[in-house]
Structure to design on (127 residues):
């Protein structure tokens, strides 16, 4: 599977198109066990905020936040596909849905590591 240094990604219906700068290919592809990721099931990788540009459909992106309201999860309002989110654990990065990358089959990445999102460090009580 070829990951371009400049790669396009889109939702299912094509209403939302992203341009990603990926100089090192897929950085840290993973799944997460938090409640949102468990239900969504996506494999994600990360880029710096400046390395993700919305080139089409910004007005068609919905925003979903929950719990601590720190992470910002974006999805297409038309087809419902999750495209990316601004990370809670590193707000200087976006995580993006690897399945949205043009020409990429996320099933070819298996096995993919799992992050423990249930026990997120920002959720621990400090005494």
């Amino acid at each position: 599977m070829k990951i371009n240094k400049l790669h396009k990604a889109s939702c299912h219906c094509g209403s939302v198109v992203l341009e990603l700068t990926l100089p090192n290919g897929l950085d840290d592809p993973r799944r997460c066990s938090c409640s949102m990721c468990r239900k969504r099931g996506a494999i994600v990788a990360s880029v710096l905020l400046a390395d993700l540009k919305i080139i089409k459909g910004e007005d068609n992106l919905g925003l979903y936040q929950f719990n601590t309201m720190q992470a910002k999860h974006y999805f297409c309002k038309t087809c419902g596909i999750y495209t990316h989110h601004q990370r809670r654990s590193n707000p200087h990065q976006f995580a993006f849905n690897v399945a949205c990358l043009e020409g990429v089959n996320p099933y070819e990445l298996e096995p993919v590591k799992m992050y423990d999102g249930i026990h997120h460090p920002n959720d621990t009580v400090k005494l």
Remarks:
- Helices lie at 35-40.
